[in-house]
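Support request, please re-run this one:
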Amino acid sequence: HELKCAMASIVLDQGERIVAVNSAWTRLCGFSANEALGSSPKLLQGPKTDTREARAFAEACRLGSATITLTNYRKDGSPFTHRITSRRVLDASGRVYYLSEGREVHGVLSLLASSQVARLFCVTLPRLAAALPPLAALYAAREVASHASDRWPGGSVTGGLLLLAAGTGLLLSLASA
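Re-run finished. Output below.
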């Protein structure tokens, strides 16, 4: 079954088996429609996929809708940051399906998609910056960024730190340091 949509999309049945995919999904994930049909979306999981979060996402979908950002894996084994929104839908005869639409997120978006890191930059650091003198805030921000670098695609933290800082008010502290 082919879905016509620009987003990478799949449809799951109640047993969480893939019953339809679109060409955007096959390009993103590397699996053909024939390889995906009848499979579980778990075929995209790998060593860095947070399976606990994936299970919580599936449960939330059963109740209505949910959005998640996970590290998933293409058929060739390469990881990617996958932002997925899924919702429960009914067909004309009342059967339940789950429509999932996803996209790959890159760079700063990838970092922001990680809720822990986003909270760190958007909640914790502004509080820290307000409480510390500018130079100490800059040092603390750099220290936090160095610990976040394993979650930053490409390993480049500096540019993203400044960009994120602009959105948190920390840029004023950085500029005055």
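The first strand starts at residue 2 and ends at 3. The longest helix spans residues 115-131.
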